[in-house]
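Illustration 12: Zinc protease.
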Amino acid sequence: MPSAALAAEPAGVQQFTLKSGMTLIVKPDRRAPTAVHMLWVRVGSMDEVDGTSGVAHVLEHMMFKGTPTVKAGDFSRQVAALGGRENAFTAKDYTGFYQQIPANKLEDVMRLESDRFANNQWSDEVFAKELEVVKEERRMRTEDNPHARLHEAMDAMVYQAAPYRRPVVGWMSDLDAMTARDARDFYRRWYIANNAAVVVAGDVDVDQVRALAEKYYGGLPTRSTPARKPREEPEQLGQRRLDFKAPAEQAYVALAFKVPGLSAEGLAASGSNEPDAASEEAMALTVLSAVLSGYDGARLPRALTLEANPVADDVGAYYGLTARSGPQLFTLSGVPAAGKTTAEVEKALRAQVALVAKDGITEAELARVKNRWVAGEVYKQDSVFNQARLLGVNWINGYPLGSDQRLLERLRTVTAAQVQAVAAKYFGDDALTVATLLPQPVDKTRKPRQLVAGSRH
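Figure caption equivalent — predicted structure in C-alpha cell form:
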C-alpha cells in the first residue's frame, strides 16, 4: 500500500501517513449521519517573524478568496449548499479549517479543501480589501477591549525570546505595513502536505476515508518542512510589573507565573516506571488551577467574592497545560470589589496559593476535581466536532493517539502532596509578571464598532 498505518487505539481511531506526507486521522462515530472534516496546519503566530506579526491570521482569511477553479466566496456557498457549516481559526500554535456536513458529502468537502490548500490564489487588490477587515477585527476585539489590550501587552513583557510574545491578530503597525507578498510567502513556506493533518470524525468508514484522502491529498507535492530554530525563553530572574492605562469601568489585575507544560515526551513517558518530572508537575498544576477556580464554590470565588466584605467582584485561575513550546503560564486574575484596590486583590490571590503551599488541599477537593475532569472528558465525546478538534490539537502538539485517555490516567494518579509541592515551588516573585489595568474615563457617546463588509468571521 502507498500509505502506511502508524497507530490505532481501542476506541477505533486510526492514523495514517498519505503518499504526500500528510497525516490522516479517522475516528468513526455512527450515532448520527454527520461527519466533521478538519484540516490542521502546524503553523500559527509563533512561527511568524518580527515585522509580519498577524500574517498567519491574515492568511487564514485569504484561504477563502479562491483558487483557479473556485471563485472567492464560492467555497462557503458550496459547503452551505451541501447542508453543512464551515469556518476557520488561527491560534499561536496552529491554523485550522473545518466543515461539518452530512456524512455522504465528505468527498465534496475533501475536493474543495484539498484544492484551496494546494491552489489558493488572489489578487493584490483582494488582499488589500481583506486586510482592512482584519484591521477592523483587531480594533473591535482588541483595541476596544481593555482586558485584551492588557493581556497583549502582558505577553510582550512576560516573554522576551519565546515566540508567544506576539499577538495572534498582529500589531497594528505590522498590519499597516503588510503586503500580499508577505502572505503568499508564508503560504508557500508552511502550507505543505507534511506540515498538515486531515482529521475526519463521524459516521464514516475508515477504509473509505483513507481512499478518499489518498485521492485528494495523497497527490499533493511533497517538500521538506522548513527548519524551526529554537527560541528558548531566558530564565526570568525578577518580578516584572506593568501599569496599563485604558478606558474601562473597573480596574483589573493579572498575575502570570512561568511554569512547566506537558511535553509530548512527558506524555509518552506516562507508562514508564520513572515518569517525566516536569509532566508530573504539569498535571499537579492542572489540579491546582481547578481547585482554585474550576467549579462553583472553588477556593478563589469562595474566599474573595462570597464573603460578607468581598475583595473582588470576579476572580479566576487559568493554566494552559499544552502548547508546542514552553514555558507555560499559570495566571491568576481579579476585578476589585467596590472600595477595594488591585493591590488588595493581588495580595488575596497570592494568599490563597500560599495557603495551599502551607496546608495542602483536602482529599475531597482532589476527588471533586478528578471527577469533574472525567465527566468533562465524557461530555466532550458527545460532540463529533469536539472529538475531531481534540485529535487535531493533540496532533499539533505531537501527542500520540490515545493521549486523552493517558491524560485521564495521569490525572487519577495526582496526589494532594504533589499539588501542595507545585504551589510551594512555582509561585514566588522571580518568575512573576503582574499587569494592572488603571481605568481611564470611558466615552459614553461612542458607538460600538462593527466589522466592515466582507468579513466572514
